[in-house]
Amino acid sequence: MRPTPTPPPWTGLLVIQPLRRRHCARCRRGPLPLLVLEEGAPRCLDCADLGHLVFLPRGDTALTRRSREASALSAVVVRFDRRHGRYERQGVLVEEEALARAEERCLADAEARHRRRVRDARRRAAQDVRFAEAFALEIRRLFPGCPADRAQVIAAHASVRGSGRVGRSTAGRALSPEAVTAAVRASVRHTETPYDKLLMDGVPRAEARRRIANGVEAVLREWQLRKAA
């Protein structure tokens, strides 16, 4: 039988999750889910005076830190990983009351973060509405013949946050004429020409754009010259 590797020198009390069946050398209880090595012999948590502690698995750094801060007594729980050939941390043992207090603090923080996320989402939504309105107004300034509802649709599509579309580019956010015109041109390409059908028929994108270029420019000139409706 292979000997159990010696745990590394962790700071503080150390508790082991054994890989094989072990019994307490003092009370003979077992097999033990957790044990403490004292002078090389396994002890159950009760015999090691740790039986009143509760196990907190790893994964929530804030909860672990706060639980250990609030607990007068705590221990690190480790298990040997055969694949990596080392002991790895599995969690901690802390006082139940300390864990409850830590959970309350983390829950309060989570609620605060949720409220902040809601506020931020509302603020961004309001900003997006104002930006889309400004974008639509700039479309109407450059292309007075573009119907108002169509300008709003183009602006809403081009300015979706996180879309990567021209309206969210640096030039788009600055309402540069080039960016606004690019958004209008893209909309006309897909709506007023057979561009999409050409792509579906297998026509290469560059060739499809070449075929519909004159039609796109004709619509843009019409919208530029026509008076606002």
UniProtKB/TrEMBL annotation:
Ranges of residues in domain DUF2293: 138-224
The protein's name: DUF2293 domain-containing protein
Entries under Pfam families matching the protein: DUF2293
